[in-house]
Amino acid sequence: IGYARFPALTDALLGQVWFRALLMPATWIALVWELFFGPLVLYRRTRNATLILGLLVHLGIWVGLVVGIFSWISVWTYLAFLPAGWAGRLEDRLRGGSTSPEAPAPS
After folding, report:
1. SS3 for 5?
2. Which of these, 30, 47, 26, 29, lies nearest to 38 by C-alpha position?
3. Which of 51, 58, 39, 52 is CA-nearest to residue 80?
4. Which pLDDT score is estimated for 1?
5. Is pLDDT at 47 greater than 80 in this prediction?
6. Cα–Cα dist 81/79, whole Å
7. Is this prediction's pTM over 0.85?
């Protein structure tokens, strides 16, 4: 383990057998995700899963490592991969409006 770790969290967890067993597959998943992030995020069918996994990876980095605002900046950059107009559709849905394009406009 390098120096960029959060000692209070990692020291307590590294002694746990279940946590050590979790680290090996999590490390490989993160490595494969890092290597294939570009192609996976550009392909529409895998984009959402790739971004969700990225969110989880960076949440894990934020919780377990001391790297400043790196994780939050990385997550914010994922917004560039979302389809155009997603923010407006999300706002409409949160306000209880219709998301279908053929719905009549309110009068």
Report:
1. strand
2. 47
3. 51
4. 46
5. yes
6. 5
7. no
Q: Where are the alpha helices (DSSP H) in the chain?
A: 7-14, 17-42, 44-64, 70-77, 86-94
> Amino acid identity of 53?
L
- Residues 47, 38 contacting (CB under 8 angstroms): no
What is the residue type of 62?
Answer: W
Report how far residue 44's alpha carbon sits from residue 35's, in angstroms, rounded to the nearest whole number.
18
pLDDT in tens, 66-100: 778 888 898 899 888 888 888 888 888 888 866 55
**Would you call 50 exposed, middle or buried from its count of C-beta atoms within 10 A (0-12, 13-18, 19+)?**
buried
| AA identity, residue 33 | W
